[in-house]
TrEMBL record:
<keyword id="KW-0472">Membrane</keyword>
<protein>
    <submittedName>
        <fullName>UDP-glucose:undecaprenyl-phosphate glucose-1-phosphate transferase</fullName>
        <ecNumber>2.7.8.31</ecNumber>
    </submittedName>
</protein>
<dbReference type="InterPro" id="IPR017475">
    <property type="entry name" value="EPS_sugar_tfrase"/>
</dbReference>
<keyword id="KW-0812">Transmembrane</keyword>
<feature type="transmembrane region" description="Helical">
    <location>
        <begin position="285"/>
        <end position="306"/>
    </location>
</feature>
<feature type="transmembrane region" description="Helical">
    <location>
        <begin position="110"/>
        <end position="132"/>
    </location>
</feature>
<feature type="transmembrane region" description="Helical">
    <location>
        <begin position="51"/>
        <end position="71"/>
    </location>
</feature>
<keyword id="KW-0808">Transferase</keyword>
<feature type="domain" description="Bacterial sugar transferase">
    <location>
        <begin position="280"/>
        <end position="459"/>
    </location>
</feature>
<dbReference type="GO" id="GO:0016020">
    <property type="term" value="C:membrane"/>
</dbReference>
<dbReference type="InterPro" id="IPR017473">
    <property type="entry name" value="Undecaprenyl-P_gluc_Ptfrase"/>
</dbReference>
<dbReference type="Pfam" id="PF13727">
    <property type="entry name" value="CoA_binding_3"/>
</dbReference>
<comment type="similarity">
    <text>Belongs to the bacterial sugar transferase family.</text>
</comment>
<keyword id="KW-1133">Transmembrane helix</keyword>
<dbReference type="InterPro" id="IPR003362">
    <property type="entry name" value="Bact_transf"/>
</dbReference>
<dbReference type="Pfam" id="PF02397">
    <property type="entry name" value="Bac_transf"/>
</dbReference>
<feature type="transmembrane region" description="Helical">
    <location>
        <begin position="83"/>
        <end position="104"/>
    </location>
</feature>
Length: 467
């Protein structure tokens, strides 16, 4: 039933995508030639002449959409990943369209219109997909189009899986029950019962309408795994394995092959790739220069106010631990009274901290005190986006207390980061901050950096946790 629903959905998506592309072309033609927004010379191709080439390459557009996984199930698909794939698909489709026009020597096809068409197609397809996503989520939350699943094995993973399924109703999973050899029959977790033993698997697959089986066996029971997979494949039911060692591997494991032997890299860091490093560094340099120009009036005013309201230097230098655990001097506008170096190294800033000046409270709350770090970015000590750097004293302390804490030093620290835009800033949970830092390190992309910068602009400057 689920497979049939997916086929129907895919057919509908193809029709909607085709309509969106055609409507985008018509809208682009209207904007270019009939809206009056753009100057038009006398004489231009009719709408029919513009539509014909797009109609011819429509199957190519659909193939490209399929290549970029725009027709895969929506249950777990990330909305930002889908948007990025829509952009890539339409750019590739446009390039193919331009190539066809060039080969057929069609010189009267407006380049302005092609550009407008690409923007319209990306925008309209994105709106279409968001609407479909919202409709599907609402349908699944109401109990329709559900996937009926069985869980084999009881462990910590089982509890975590059930917690996430319960939290994400839009996934549309209906857990029939749990099979386990160790727990009592009738034992409940998250309102789901242990309904049988592992050897009952074949019975349930043959008598119940099961769409998928999740395997959450304890690592000590992995000798049963081959048998479970064999039963599922014999019954034609899809098997999903959540390994008991999942906590030790990244959310997106990087698998290499050594003479046909798959090897999982425990920590995949996209920024280890030299191309990505160069791209990020170029953006850091250009972005920090632009930011220095934009914020220079605020910075000059801040310099004057610090001098006027408190004796001491304008800039405050502090040792922080950066890339590859190397120390560097991080710059900030001074927001506190001048302290002894020994005190400053080990004291944590707290709410109502008496060391702050009146003007210092304001610039900390609005993050203006962070602006001199743009010079750290230019120097290469920091990046615009990354995990926040910490003082050596606290690094030594946290690395013993917080698991995986030192992994954050595998990338350049940032002025802003995923933890900061999610509210984990100032005197908040170090553990939560590290979770956010690890997510950023393992899932880095140019799009994620842009998202963090935009979130910083809209909600990151003024923060209730910035003391």
């Amino acid at each position: 039933m689920i497979k049939e629903n997916q086929k129907i959905l895919n057919r509908l998506l193809i029709i909607f995508d085709a309509v969106s592309i055609m409507f985008s072309l018509m809208l682009a033609w209207w904007i270019r030639f009939r809206s009056g927004w753009i100057y038009v010379d006398s004489g231009y191709l009719s709408l029919r002449e513009y539509l014909l080439p797009v109609l011819i390459i429509m199957p190519i557009y659909i193939i490209i959409y399929s290549f970029f996984r725009l027709y895969t199930p929506y249950r777990f698909k990330n909305v930002f990943e889908e948007l990025f794939n829509i952009i890539k698909s339409n750019i590739m489709g446009l390039l193919i369209l331009v190539l066809i026009l060039f080969l057929f020597k069609e010189i009267h096809y407006s380049r302005y219109l092609l550009f407008i068409f690409a923007l319209c197609s990306i925008s309209i397809t994105t709106v279409e997909r968001i609407i479909i996503r919202l409709i599907l989520r609402r349908i699944r939350k109401k109990g329709y189009n559900l996937k009926h699943v069985l869980i084999v094995g009881f462990s910590e993973l089982t509890v975590e899986l059930l917690r996430r399924i319960d939290k994400n109703k839009q996934w549309g999973y209906n857990v029939i029950g749990i099979l386990d050899d160790n727990k009592k029959l009738g034992y409940k977790v998250k309102e789901k019962e242990v309904i049988g033993r592992n050897y009952d698997l074949e019975y349930y697959l043959s008598t119940k309408d099961i769409d998928e089986v999740f395997v959450t066996l304890n690592i000590k029971e992995y000798e049963k795994l081959q048998w479970v997979i064999g039963i599922c494949e014999k019954s034609g039911v899809r098997t999903q394995i959540i390994p008991d060692y999942y906590k030790y591997i990244p959310s997106r494991p990087y698998v290499e092959e050594v003479d046909g032997l798959p090897i999982i890299n425990i920590r995949h860091v996209p920024l280890d790739h030299v191309i990505y490093k160069v791209i990020k560094r170029c953006i850091d340099v250009i972005g920090s220069l632009i930011a220095l120009v934009i914020f220079s009036p605020i910075m000059l005013l801040t310099v004057g106010m610090i001098k006027f309201t408190s004796p001491g230097p304008v800039l405050f230098k502090q040792k922080r631990v950066g890339l590859n655990r190397k120390n560097f001097n991080m710059y900030k506008f001074r927001s506190m009274h001048v302290q002894k170096e020994e005190e400053e190294k080990v004291q944590w800033t707290t709410k109502e901290d008496p060391r702050r000046t009146k003007f210092g409270t304001f610039i900390r709350k609005t993050s203006i005190d962070e602006l001199p770090q743009l010079f750290n970015v230019l120097k290469g000590d920091m990046s615009l986006v990354g995990p926040r750097p910490e003082r050596p004293y606290f690094v030594e302390k946290f690395k013993e207390e917080i698991p995986k804490y030192m992994i954050k030093h595998q990338v350049r620290p940032g002025i802003t980061g995923w933890a900061q835009v999610n509210g984990w800033r100032g005197d908040t949970s170090i553990k939560k901050r590290i979770e956010c830092d690890l997510y950023y390190i393992e899932n880095w992309s140019l799009f994620l950096d842009i998202k963090i910068l935009l979130l910083t602009v809209f909600k990151g400057f003024v923060n209730k946790n910035a003391y």
